[in-house]
Amino acid sequence: MVLKFRMLSDENDNFVRDFEVDPTMTLAEFHNFIIASLGYDDCMASFFTADDKWNRQREFTLMDMGEGMGFDEEDMPIPMSKVTLAEIVIAEYTRLIYLFDMFANRAYYIELVSSAQPNPQLDYPRVAFENAPVPDQYDPDAVDSTSGSIFDEMMDDFSEFGGDDSYDDEY
Fold this sequence. Notes:
It is built from three helices and eight strands. With 171 residues, it is α+β, with helices and mostly antiparallel strands. The chain has one domain: Structural Genomics Hypothetical 15.5 Kd Protein In mrcA-pckA Intergenic Region, Chain A (Roll), CATH 3.10.290.
């Protein structure tokens, strides 16, 4: 089985990445794949499960917070290395928030969009679709003005249709 996740950003409405990954991948491996695919430097990050309104729920961290950090046991973050994507999806959490900038509270929104049998001709994990440049890892105000609207880009193929001027629609 291969899980297909779509990642969006609230910093750039045109930014889209679709990832196809093995469900046995841990959240730590998913984090490493995301960082590499975006071209980001390694960073502290957390995943959160999210409800249907994107409210953060359970936290998964890169570092094991261990005991004695002042958390109640049910609120204690779980290390990413101890949880697979399958375990989260089985628990019916199909939305994740990927917090990649803890100081500025910047995140990506990731949602499970499908699952399918793997294609033996493809290697996983992989980026299956991408649109628009990646938001800058360190500067949320750095916007690439050439990204355009995904709608406009998709409709460009139809802009050259001029019709047939010799056609008379009058009866």
